Amino acid sequence: MHKRMAMLAFIILVVAWGIPSAKAACSTPVVNASFGSVTSFAVNSTASTSSGSLSVNCGSSLATIFNTDTISVRLTASTFASGTQAIMKKVGDSSGDNIPITVCLSVQNCGSPMTIGAPATTFNSTQLSIFLLTGGKNFTIPLFFSTQPGQTVAAGTYTTTLSFLTNWDICTGLGVGIGGIQICVIDQNGSATLSLTVTLEVTNDCTTILAPAVNFGTAPLLSSFSSVVQTISVTCTKGSVYTVGLNDGIHAVNGVRNMASGSNLIRYDIYQSTTNNRWGSSIASQRWSSTNATSVSTNQLIRNYNYTATLLSGQTTPVEGNYSDTITVDLSF
């Protein structure tokens, strides 16, 4: 019995001595994650998902009787963070806009997301078997990412680079057991900090235009009607730059707005704020820029545009009736 054990040990040493070139450094490729393009309002209301991966590729493997492979992964840093929470921001932006992300290792919708500085997650040989690629000892561990809703942000490219400290101990050949002791002759072990970039493109969008009807009221003479001051409110992406236009209505004649009752017309017009600047659509100078809105909400989503609607002078009072027109409000980025 002792002779057999000695002979087996001798064979193992000879084989190990005979193939020193079988051990080579494991490579650690990374697949970055992208959420694609999402509107700012979708960022606020709905979680977006994406995925990437970390790999430990140790090449071909000789036959093993046992397997003691382990890989551990720990999130150590994020380019942008709030405490231990990884967040995405626009590079160089000082506005404070950010989008927190949830990081799940190997399992989507995990119950315990990774946080910066938390203890490493270690996968044993049984767990690693589901990440093992065909042929050799090459493992790809998936990472799943989701945004956290509730953020009011401006458009732009949001990103962060996550750092994962990865340790591995992989037996790539001649794993045997001797008297209950497991021995790996060709052992690959090492560590590396892997950098994975997560990106989201937030796009401009508008959701609401509030334009109450204009009512001049009732009077016997055109000269008795007063101007009407009202507000159009537009809800668009925070910080977005756009213009608001009003067309000439459905009864316009030679570019002059009219209210109609049958074939009878009353000329009127609409001006920006209390100025004499006509609010139009087809002429660029008559469009109203969001940068010059009358007022802006605290969250910078709603911009208000106060205007004055007035009947044009020099008209003869037409026959009595209900006069109306329909104006279209349009937005252009």
UniProtKB/TrEMBL annotation:
Keyword Signal: yes
Statement: the UniProt record of this protein carries the keyword Signal: yes
Domain of life: Bacteria
Region forming the signal peptide: 1-24
Limits of the Spore coat protein U/FanG domain: 21-162, 193-329
Entry-linked SMART domains: SCPU
Cross-referenced Pfam families: SCPU (PF05229)
Keywords for the protein's UniProt record, in alphabetical order: Signal
Protein name (database record): Spore coat protein U/FanG domain-containing protein
Origin species: Chania multitudinisentens RB-25
